[in-house]
UniProtKB/TrEMBL annotation:
This is Heterodisulfide reductase subunit B. It comes from the Bacteria. The lineage of its organism: Bacteria, Pseudomonadati, Campylobacterota, Epsilonproteobacteria, Campylobacterales. Keywords: Oxidoreductase. It holds the Pfam family CCG. Gene3D superfamilies: 1.20.1050.140, 3.40.50.11810. One of its GO terms (molecular function) is oxidoreductase activity. Residues 6-85, 151-243 form the Cysteine-rich domain.
Amino acid sequence: MSKLKYALFTGCTAKQSTPELLSSTLAVADKLGIEITILEEASCCGASHLQDFDEFLAHVLNARNICYAEKLGLTMITICNTCQLNSAMTKHALDTDPDLKARVNEKLAEVGLEYKGTSEIKHFLYCLIDEYGLENIKDKVEVPLSHLNIAPFYGCHNIRPSELHHTSNGGENPYNPTSLDQLIDALEGHPVNYDHKNKCCGFHVELQANHTSEILAGNAMVDAIDNNADIMVTPCPLCHLKMDTYQDDVGKVIGRDIELPVLHMPQMVALALGCTPKEIGLNYHVQKATHLTA
C-alpha cells in the first residue's frame, strides 16, 4: 500500500478544549505510517452558528480552509463532525453553483487564494476504514480491546444529511450506521448495539434549550449503560464535550447516576495500537478514564 498523505483541518476544539483529540490523532497516524500535514492557516468552520447569521461569510471561510488543502494537492481530513459537515456543505454549494463560486473566489482573491474544488473532504474515521483498511488495522493491534464493551456514538453531523456524506464518508446509512461498530470489531472490542447510537447529543442546543440538551445526552448514555457498555466512543469532539463534561448535570435531570468514560475515536484506536498514555491523553477527561491505560 502506498503511503497515505492528508491535510488535517483540526478545527478549533482539538486545539483548545480537547487537546487529547489532536495528540491521539497524530499518534495513530504515526503508528500507521500515515503522513499528516496540519493546516495551520485554517480558521473556524463557523460551528453551525455563523451559517445561521451570515451564510456567505461561512462559505468564504470554509472555502479558504479548503484552498490550503488544494495548494498541497491533498485530501482534507477532519476530526470533528461539525467541521466535516460545514466544510462539505461549502464544497457541495460551490461545486454545484458557479455564480456562488465566482462570488466566493472574488473575496478569496483579496488574500491571494482561489477555490478550485480539487480536494476531497473526509472525516478521519472513514480514511481509516475506506483507505487504510480494517484488515490492515487489525494487523497493527498491540493491545486488543477484548475486555471492553464499547458503545459507538456516531453524532449527527457525520451521517446527516446523507446526500452530503455519501461520496466522502463511505455511504453511511444514517438510520443504521456501522463504521464505528466495524472499527471496534477490528480492534477486538465488543461493539454495543443500542437504539440511541445515531441520535443527537444535544450539544448544539445547550445554551438555547438546556433541559432538552440534558435529556438528549442522558437518553443516549443511559441506553448505552443499560446495554452493558463499559465505555462510549465518538468521532465528534462536540459530542465528547457534552457526554464527558456534563454527566453530573445530566444525571440530575434524568434521575440516574451516570459514570461512563467517553473516548474520542482516535483515542480508542491509539489505545489498541499501544500508544503512550501521554499521546492518548485520558488524563484530560472529566469522567475518570485513566484506568483504561493502567
